[in-house]
Write a structure and sequence with these properties.
Length: 450
């Protein structure tokens, strides 16, 4: 794997060194390109020492360096052809603007225009810069052009403000790079059953009751699971999409056919993700002949089977069950109610408001809901969202060990002691989750580490 890390001028530039390390650990050969501003924050020598390669800092300097120049000596073109993925971390507001508008006035921006490799950006900046309409519009443009945006997290920023703008963790950025290269195999060994698309309930030989589901979310999930090494069974309602390569596709039309296919194939699945929009009702009477217009008509409808509830009832130990909920109002309340009623491991709740989000659209935003957590997954292309959903699903597979119980108010000292104890025992204590348990006897906090 040949990866170019672009470093632009933000305080998080030092974290690019950790990213280089994380990529190298995964077997990547890494080149580093730095903007002039980035060199104010960290020396090229750091990256040259880590990578063993000359750091590319200018379109003009070291022009005849033997290492990265091709026969024609045009270094940014040879780098553009050499690289299999360009990842910019941190990506400043300035570099995002230049990428979005095709400005090519230094090595990194020229390389961006010249390469056909996948491009990823990990923005990092002050919250007001992040929220500025100019930055958000630039990001939108870049997303539309296929650039993968690794969204920043929220928290205390270097500038002293709180909010969105902290660069994603280097390990997460490295994972996204591997995923873009199709090299992440963290679903190897899983058999993933995905349902996708809408169902159709016949009224007569030519008419049906259906819904607007395009199947794009389910197909994106199937594609992501295949690229991460899973065997995938895709149970699909009618859609206009081509199924992703290397999936076993079972085509169905009605809710009842979908139920049969899911029940039959869930036996072999280790993970069931129900992204299909299944009809809740079907007509009680289906006419053999095409219905004629004879005046007002009342349809009598009967409820269909609840497939998710049945899947949960039939689950085997270790099998993960993830449902989807499309909500037009009270998204989180309704999602949480569905999670509790159905007994799934998680529910992916998405608002269906029209305006380019959710049903039929290419992008989606969602909340990944479990009994303990509500992870916001912001607006992004459905393929990227599919990867983020699998990232969260995989955290459900992590073995957890209970470390310590706190009092009602949460005792920070006890928590730190527990984390230290786990660290010295070699556990990944940085992954500690704090969980609030409430019962009639009162509430208490537990710290759980990987
Ligand atoms: C101390 C300091 C910290 C900065 N941190 C950031 C930052 O985190 N994110 C950002 O977008 N810009 C930041 N900037 C502004 C950029 O460095 C500036 O926009 C520069 O032109 C970026 O150039 P580049 O995109 O070519 O690297 C910072 C500037 C200074 C002086």
């Amino acid at each position: 794997m040949r990866v170019t890390v672009g470093v632009s001028g933000g305080i998080a530039a030092y974290k690019a060194a950790e990213l280089v390390r994380a990529l190298q650990k995964q077997g990547a050969e890494v080149h580093v390109v730095m903007t002039a501003a980035a060199q104010k924050f960290i020396q090229p020598l750091t990256f040259a020492s880590l990578t063993g390669h000359q750091v590319l800092t200018s379109l003009w300097d070291d022009y005849w360096s033997a290492e990265t120049t091709d026969q024609n000596g045009i270094q940014h073109i040879s780098e553009a052809q050499w690289t299999e993925a360009l990842v910019v971390a941190p990506a400043t507001a300035n570099i995002l603007a230049k990428f979005a508008h095709g400005i090519a006035d230094d090595f990194l921006t020229t390389l961006y225009l010249a390469t056909r490799a996948p491009v990823l950006v990990a923005p990092a900046m002050n919250v007001n810069m992040w929220e500025h309409a100019a930055t958000q519009d630039n990001l939108e443009l870049l997303r539309e052009r296929g650039v993968r945006v690794i969204d920043p997290g929220a928290g205390a920023l270097a500038c002293g403000m709180m909010g969105l703008g902290r660069m994603a963790e280097p390990e997460a950025i490295a994972d996204a790079v591997l995923s873009a290269l199709g090299r992440r195999h963290d679903l190897a060994g899983e058999i993933v059953l995905v349902t996708a698309g809408g169902t159709r309930e016949a009224l007569d030989p030519v008419r049906f009751i259906g819904n607007r589901s395009s199947g794009k979310m389910g197909y994106a999930l199937a594609e992501a699971a295949v690229s991460r090494g899973a065997r995938v069974i895709l149970v699909s309602g009618p859609t206009a999409l081509h199924p992703p390569a290397h999936c076993e596709v079972i085509k169905v039309t009605t809710a009842d056919q979908m139920r049969h296919a899911v029940i039959e194939h869930m036996v072999e699945a280790t993970l069931v993700i129900k992204a299909a929009a299944v009809a809740d009702y079907r007509p009680v009477h289906v006419s053999d002949q095409k219905l004629k217009r004879t005046g007002p008509m009342t349809l009598e409808l009967a409820p269909t089977e609840d497939i998710l509830a049945e899947v949960v009832r039939r689950r085997r130990p270790g099998q993960l069950i993830i449902g989807f909920a499309a909500e037009t109002q009270d998204k989180l309340e309704n999602g949480r109610a569905k999670l509790l009623n159905k007994g799934a491991d998680a529910i992916v709740v998405n608002a269906v408001t029209g305006d380019g989000v959710g049903i039929e659209a290419d992008s989606n935003a969602a909340t990944f809901l479990t009994l303990q957590t509500a992870i916001e997954l912001p607006l992004m292309p459905k393929r990227s969202l599919a990867d983020r959903i699998f990232d969260e699903v995989l955290t459900l597979r992590r073995p957890k060990a209970l470390l310590v119980e706190f009092g009602e108010s949460g005792d920070e000292k006890a928590k730190q002691d527990a984390v230290l104890k786990a660290s010295s025992a070699g556990d990944a204590a940085t992954e500690a989750d704090e969980v609030l348990i409430s019962s009639a006897a009162g509430s208490r906090r537990q710290l759980i580490v990987e």
